[in-house]
Automatic annotation (TrEMBL):
Keywords: Chemotaxis, Cytoplasm, Hydrolase, Phosphoprotein. CDD domains: CheB_Rec, REC_CheB-like. The modification 4-aspartylphosphate is found at residue 59. It is found in: Cytoplasm. GO terms for biological process: chemotaxis. The lineage of its organism: Bacteria, Bacillati, Bacillota, Tissierellia, Tissierellales. Its main location: cytoplasm. It comes from Andreesenia angusta. NCBIfam families: PRK00742.1, PRK12555.1. This is Protein-glutamate methylesterase/protein-glutamine glutaminase. The active site is at 167, 193, 289. Its EC number is 3.1.1.61, 3.5.1.44.
Length: 344
């Protein structure tokens, strides 16, 4: 994406009112221009060919073909960065599986405060999506595992915790990663930038589709082999020793590095309390959250891995981490599981 030109957006929604609100709202940003609108997927297909937009905003509930089905077809044939808009939470998570770069919850248009927050969030995510790198979507079995074999050796002697940070594109990147990993690896603690109403749903989805125990964190949860702990939205998460065990602490607080939960907050706590017995992973995402914390982990002796440019949807957080010397090894997402197990 050339930052010297505006992001061209196609707004797809069956509601004329919604199309107008979205178009007028995001057009207030001087870096965005709405080049067209479409009321259903078939009209959207024609407008895409005509206008060649950089980004699409897509409603899910539409006539003739639902947005998820359209998104799957689009991503398998002509991938375009797409931000999905809907009031149905379960469909928003499904849209990420279908190839959406990100999603925004549709607000009550009668509530001015909610509407303004929605438009600001949409502006940011549209601009982020314009930098996304997409590949054609492949039909994969979501429950199949890519791990070659469960290693017989104890994988928990060298490392006690694997800490992971991710943002835009991270939900699917992390899913790809854990499909490569055996279930007898050290416990994982994860910060994925995501609204509070979605982290429990995300954890439940991973729990049902992988061989791991995946939970949304609450203070006191123990970090242990085979368990993945996801930071709850709007809460920072730290690790801490407690009665001879490693547990997590969740608390409300100001944004750190622009986010709550913050990857930096998690990584700094891992550096302090686990040191060289930790492994840090930074995945795709916009911005620099996690870079400073990952550097602290590395300086305390932890092994650190970053997702490479070619497989990152947005090469922001991994790039900054690499540039400041926080990343010991950069690998594509489909090779990251092997890199982790080899170090363990």
């Amino acid at each position: 994406m050339n930052r010297n030109r505006k992001v061209k957006v196609l707004v797809v929604d069956d509601s004329r009112l919604s199309r107008e609100i979205i178009s007028r709202g995001i057009s207030r940003d001087e870096n965005i221009v709405v080049v067209g609108q479409a009321s259903d997927p078939f009209e959207a297909r024609d407008r895409i060919e005509e206008l060649n937009p950089d980004v699409i905003t897509l409603d899910i509930n539409m006539p003739k073909m639902n947005g998820i089905e359209f998104l799957r077809k689009l991503m398998s044939q002509h991938p375009i960065p797409t931000v999905v808009i809907s009031g149905m939470k379960e469909k928003l998570m499904e849209s990420l599986e279908a190839g959406a770069v990100d999603f925004v919850s549709k607000p009550d248009v009668k509530t001015k405060k909610d509407l303004e927050g929605f438009l600001k969030e949409l502006e940011y995510k549209v601009k982020t999506a314009s930098t996304a790198k997409l590949v054609k979507l492949k039909n994969e079995d979501s429950k199949s595992r890519d791990v070659e074999a469960e290693p017989k050796r104890d994988l928990n002697k060298r490392i006690k915790v694997i800490a992971v940070g991710a943002s835009t594109g991270g939900t699917e990147a992390f899913f790809k990663l854990i499909k490569q990993l055996p279930t007898n690896i050290p416990g994982m603690v994860v910060v994925q930038h995501m609204p509070s109403s979605f982290t429990k749903m995300y954890a439940d989805r991973l729990n049902s589709q992988t061989g791991f125990e995946v939970i949304e964190a609450k203070s006191g949860d123990e970090v242990k082999p085979g368990r993945i702990i996801i930071a709850p939205g709007d809460f920072h998460m730290q690790v801490r020793p407690e009665n001879g065990k490693l547990t997590v602490r969740c608390y409300e607080g100001e944004k750190v590095s622009g986010h709550c939960p913050s990857v930096d907050v998690l990584f700094e706590s891992v550096a302090e309390h686990v040191g060289k017995k930790a492994l840090g992973v930074i995945l795709t995402g916009m911005g620099r959250d996690g870079a400073k914390g990952l550097l602290s982990m590395k300086q305390r002796g932890a092994y650190t891995i970053g997702q490479d440019r070619d497989t990152s949807v947005v090469y922001g957080m991994p790039m900054v981490s690499y540039n400041i010397g926080a990343v010991e090894k950069q690998v594509p997402i489909d090779k990251m599981g092997k890199a982790i197990v080899e170090y363990l």
